[in-house]
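so my prof wants the structure for this chain in the tokens format not the other one, which i didnt know existed until like an hour ago. anyway here's the sequence
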Amino acid sequence: MKKAYFLAHIFPLLFTLTFFTACSGQEKSREKVQLNETPPGSPNTTPNPQISEYIRQIFQDKNGNFWFGTNGDGVAHYDGDSLYYFSNEQGFDGQQITGITADQEGNIWFASDQGVIKYDWSTNPEGGKRFINYSDQQYFEGQRFWSIYVDSKNNIWGGSARGIFRFDGVNWRPFKVPYPEELKGEFLTEGTSCSILEDSAGNLWFSTRGYGAFKYEGNRFTRYTKKDGLADDEVYDMFEDRNGNIWFGTMNGGLSFFDGERFVNYHQFNSSIGDNEVCIIYEDKAGNIWFSSEGFGVYRHDGKSFTNFFKKQGLGVKAVQAIYEDKEGRFWVGGGGGLYRYDGESFVNVTKNGPWN
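here's what i got, hopefully its the right format
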């Protein structure tokens, strides 16, 4: 699971460059990417060892297969035997994958630079449509998406460059959030939501790129900002731990812990972490909180202290975008530098040739 986003309207070019070299990664064009010389959807056999130079999403489906969202090569799919790539050439409308999740039927949903894509299990593997594309131009007026989420009622939510959309089973409809002022621009705005969360009480949370975070309780919104103790109003990621506490990763303020009443912030100024840009937060099965810190790999918080994992531990990713523990208890990290797996002591680079087991 960041990036320098809101340098006002004075430096648009500088803003764009900064944004894409941080948590959002280096952007690539939407031109078709020829990944190999074999037919579309067949195993990738190119000599380049990395699955992709930038792994920004990691997900394991109900059958144990892996999906790796990249920053310009679409999505890579590992079925336990071979690695396949899907992007525009294979009918998958996405080159930059910013979110992966699954609904209650096991269908997989992707947020991308070209809209939202659904992998429909009911049409596979026997035939029919593999991917259903909800393109940005047709459904979202040209909006790229930065997050995708399925709530406990099986509603599909998407965070776009101009706010929130909800899928009603047929159409995507805008979901009105009370932003303080009208949003401007198309690529990135203060209302861009990189993270959507449903907490254990059933409340929905929406991050923003300048308005803090909104909590929706079904009939009212509550907004949390720096004035309330949040570390920064540019929020990248949100996560609820097993005790019901909400964690926020921010662009400029580091990590925020919220117990429902007060915020506790961890940042470079109190020597908790190396850099204040936190893109992704994750809780492992043991209850440890893992999170990224731009240029410093990842940190693990055991409730008392922070442990940093970076080059000395074999992690070759400065800008970490993805942290994931699979069904077998294997722990994965991805970002700018490829894909890595943690064996309990050190990190191993997982390339197109593995090691997978």
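also thought this was worth mentioning. The first strand starts at residue 55 and ends at 60.
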